[in-house]
Design brief:
Blueprint lengths: L1 H10 L11 H10 L3 H19 L2 E10 L5 E6 L1 H7 L6 H4 L9 H10 L3 E8 L6 E9 L11 E2 L7
Antiparallel strand pairs: 1-2, 1-4, 1-5, 3-4
């Protein structure tokens, strides 16, 4: 524990690993020795970790499935991202409604999960023949090759 305190006293920088597990113990040591600048940095480090758990950069897609004329599947999201996951779609997604695209909803969701997406939320509704299901899928941006200009940030909240 004292190596972190000594490093801070030497450099005035909090040099602890991202996966540091002994936060409470280090905080108490800094408090005992009245190291106010270190306490401030520890609090900032903890807040950054909490925020990174709540709001991580990610890519999002929405899949809407309606039984109109068989099974109509609509994908919403960044066009480049959709084409990356489903290169076989090509111009079909812009020029007509699912013409020549023979995937069912199970295949679409499986493909997205294989590409690192997870279902973040879903809903459904409708009456009689106008029913639908919607799925919101997300995947965290990769460390290398991130496409930050087109990325969306969503807030994750625990459900009761």
């Amino acid at each position: 524990m004292f190596r972190y305190i000594l490093n801070f006293l030497r450099t005035s920088k909090l040099l602890i690993p991202d996966d540091f597990k002994d936060y409470s113990l280090l905080y108490e040591e800094a408090r005992y020795f009245q190291l106010q600048p270190m306490l401030t940095e520890l609090e900032r480090w903890r807040q950054d970790r909490e925020l990174s758990r709540v709001s991580r950069p990610c890519e999002c897609l929405v899949v809407r499935v309606a039984p109109d004329l068989g099974e109509r599947i609509t994908l919403s999201g960044d066009k480049v991202l959709i084409e990356d996951v489903f290169p076989e779609i090509g111009d079909v997604m812009c020029n007509s409604v699912n013409a020549g695209w023979n995937h069912d909803s199970t295949h679409v969701l499986e493909r997205l999960q294989q590409r690192g997406f997870e279902i973040a939320g879903s809903c459904g509704g409708g009456v009689d023949s106008s029913q639908f299901s919607e799925y919101v899928l997300r995947r965290e941006l990769r460390r290398t090759g991130q496409r930050t200009p087109n990325s969306n940030r969503i807030k994750q909240e625990q459900l009761d």
